[in-house]
Amino acid sequence: MSDNDKIKVTILPTGTMHADLTWLLIDPSRMATQQQPDKSRDWVEVPTHVVYIEHPNGQKLMWDAGVPRDWETRWAPSGLGQFFPVDAAAEEDWLDSRLKQLNLEPNDIDYLVLSHLHLDHAANAKFWEKADTKIIVDEAEKEGAFSFDGHNKGAHIKSDYDTLQLDTIGEDTELLPGVTLLRTPGHTWGTMSLQVDLADAGTMIFASDSLYLKESYGPPPIAAGIVYDTVAWFNSVDKIRGIQERTDATVVFGHDANQIKELRTGPGNYYT
Predict the structure, then answer these.
(1) pLDDT, tens digit (0-9, with 9 covering 90-100), for 106-141
(2) Distance from C-alpha of 185 to C-alpha of 133, rounded to nearest angstrom
């Protein structure tokens, strides 16, 4: 079987933020105590990525949409830029640059699947506003993301997605043969993960912010400073772990600075 007869998965880094680690990991060992009230805070790299999938049936899928070039002005009204500055993005990292590297136009993508609608995952979704691409989110995410008035609710910035036609799923869905959307809420109302069953690399689970880091996964799992529903989050981690153990999957975490360096990334460096 040639590579052209297999699913190809390309992981594309799309710029790195920095943030206080507590947003990603509520780890008591790093917290200040009465004995150590001035314990230093951890200001850490928070890399972002999207995933480009070429299916042997000819269809193309993009998982997430990365951070925006204009993050400083776009995020200013929310105040979130000071907590999550995109201060380590090379020119080649921005999503429009990545599309050019792949010789793609937005209309070449059949499916844009947004794991959730936070500002670092849906920011460039309007690249597809005039394309024929089907844009898919979880039904609970869509409902929550339109449930508030004003500019933003936490890391949901309504102008990132408010004019898009969003299709939804309400259960785990095999979108293409070997490509399954998993409902893994908790981080937000309707965060999804992506399972891809590959011929050579085996199963890969792209957890997005259902699991920020290897340390988040555990065991035991360690929650984060941004979790909408902690009980649902723990249940979702158990769900991912069950699939991972059953399939011997590689779990790709949403913002793990160590793991992203170990993965095959960039145009041409795909998994099959």
Answers:
(1) 999 999 999 999 999 999 999 999 999 999 999 999
(2) 24
What total of structural domains would you count in the chain? 1
CATH number of the domain within which 55 lies: 3.60.15.10
In a domain, 139, yes or no: yes
What 3-state class would DSSP assign to 24?
Answer: coil
The upper half-sphere exposure of residue 270, i.e. CA atoms within 13 Å in the direction of its Cβ, equals 19
**pTM given for the model:** 0.96
Whether the CB-CB separation of 125 and 160 falls below 8 Å is answered with: yes
What are phi and psi for residue 231, nearest 5 degrees? Answer: -65, -45
Q: Does 60 fall in a domain?
A: yes
Domain that holds residue 181: 8-26+44-271
- Fill in the amino acid letter for 153: K
Structure tokens at 81: 């830029």
199 lies in some domain: yes
Q: How many CB atoms lie within 10 A of CB 31?
A: 11
Alpha-carbon distance of 67 to 97, in angstroms, equals 12
